[in-house]
Amino acid sequence: MLAISGRVCDSAGRPLPEAVAVEAFEESALGSRFDRHLGPAVPLEEGRFAITVKISLGINSRKVYLVLTDPRTRFASVRNGQNEFAPFADSQGAKKWRSKALDALEGVDVTVSLVERPVPGERYEAAVIGSGFGGSITALTLANKYAELRKALKGMPGVRGIDINYLLDTAKVRYDPNKLSLARIKAALK
Fold first, then answer.
1. How confident is the model over 35-59, as pLDDT tens digits?
2. May I ask the CATH class of domain 126-189?
3. Are 74 and 114 in contact (CB under 8 A)?
4. CA 67, CA 75: separation in Å to the nearest integer?
5. In CATH terms, are 2-114 and 126-189 the same topology?
6. 2-114 belongs to which CATH class?
7. Single pTM value for the model
8. Which strands make up the sheet holding 86-89, listed edge to edge?
9. For a Cys-Cys bond, which of 1, 41, 105, 159 suits 22, CB 3.0-4.6 Å?
10. Distance (Å, rounded) from C-alpha 33 to C-alpha 12?
């Protein structure tokens, strides 16, 4: 039995704010299409992971590589020491990052550089807030939630207009930045 262990952290050495799927593969001499999946990682605390391989690798133990899934397409780069991971999209379109063959199977230190999303300033004429889950809203409680949000926003001084997209779970609020701040709008939406 073989064990692969390590840690995934950001460029400052901190664990990532959300779990990242890590998987191990064995390269095939016949090409990447025939690479063997060795198993997914079990996430541990502080960004650590462990993969227990229950099959024998034989002579290919030096041809093991890792694949990380980028759940929100926020990775700018991924590296193990000086070795860059290569980005690719799987057959379902998910963004993933593949390492080169690992030199060591224990103590693998993976560093992820995240793309910083710009935070809007306080002086905007409009703000779009929401995650866009793309599903349909069927529950009456959700419709009531949006009605309450609309009522709360309409009652705020400086609000010029509100467009709520129930399907995308977003709200566009037009407001006078001299009378109302973006922080107050966000607080009303929570």
1. 888 989 988 889 999 999 877 766 5
2. alpha beta
3. yes
4. 13
5. no
6. mainly beta
7. 0.59
8. 36-40, 22-26, 64-69, 95-98, 86-89
9. 41
10. 35
CA distances from 70 to 22, 60, 113 (A): 10, 27, 11
Residue 53's contacts (CB-CB under 8 Å, 6 or more residues apart) are 1, 2, 3, 4, 24, 38, 39
Domain residues of the chain, as ranges? 2-114, 126-189
Gap between the Cα atoms of 161 and 145, Å rounded:
18
| Other residues' Cβ atoms within 10 Å of the Cβ of residue 178 | 8
What six digits make up the tokens of 175?
């407001």
Give the E-state strand segments of the chain in sequence order: 2-10, 22-26, 36-40, 42-43, 48-53, 64-69, 75-80, 83-84, 86-89, 95-98, 108-114, 126-130, 159-165, 170-175
